[in-house]
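[stage:ingest] chain + small molecule (magnesium ion)
[stage:ingest] validated
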Amino acid sequence: MNLKRSLVAAASAAILCASPAASQSHTRWKIHDMTRPVPAKVDASVKLPVPPPSDAVVLFDGTDLSSWRAADGSAAKWIIKEGSLAAVPGGGPVLTRDGYGDIQLHIEWAAPTPGRGKGQGRGNSGVFLMSKYEVQVLDSHENTTYPDGQAAAVYGQYPPLVNASLPAGEWQAYDIVFRRPRFRPDGSVAQPARITVLHNGVLVHDNSEIWGPTSWLQHLPYESHPDRLPLQLQDHGNPVLFRNIWLRELDEEPRPGPGRHQTKPIITMTPLMLDNYVGEYGEGGVQGVVVSRRDGTLWAKFGLLPPLELLPHSEEEFSLRWTAATVMFKLGSDGKPKTLTFHIGGEARPTPRMSD
Ligand code: MG
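[stage:predict] done
[stage:export] tokens:
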């Protein structure tokens, strides 16, 4: 490769590295594509308000703005109007004082009535999870705009599965389950954010993977950010109302991994020793247990279930693989099991041995 060519190649590589979003397309649709299929209209009816459960963090109950602030940290510029939190055009967004990561969020909103404006200018606000990922708020009852920007869209990424919008002035609800993105120590994305949304009780996003921060006209790449960031409501110049805002913080999802299931040591028993346990316990039928041996492993068949593997921890104690269930054998003076007791969920079910 000559010098000129290598310089061109290096420059191209630098451009690709500088704007990774430009090199990837997440969908066959262009951002804000008007030829994208329009979500079908669904007549929704939802009973509101939905009271917060006992473990909820109540962010707005109609009485005060103490959980909220302006972007610069000063007092929130929005106003409380008849128990609602009203966006003040030009007042800027409002952000929660605390940060949140994985959450279940309930929020009710109403587009201004009488409806004014059209497209993106009609009842526009937004619920920004972690201040970065917007679920669009818009009067989309009878209002044409690009599908990835209508009410309940993950803005610029996913239109809602259906349009469950109610007319302006009517209270509507979003119920959102949000899993924040996970970043590796080097800042790369280990797991993108995921979102499930119900609009007025109707599923509009089903565990969708968010590609990066939502934005007008842009696919922005993820940039590593803290695990907890404020929830933000957008000022888009329209006096949208909000009320009954609460969330529940979610525990991290448990991850499967080795070593979590079995902590007790497993002992080795010879086939001859295992044959001691082989036989029928109980009266048969659904309550009976049949113990059998296949090669070096014991199996217990409970009623109609297929045989389940028994792991020996001692001559008396076995467990069922992958479960918290224990099988205890009571041995007679001859060393042979006389009773099998099945333990699960704090209950014990002893069954006498019926035959070898
Ligand atoms: Mg918006």
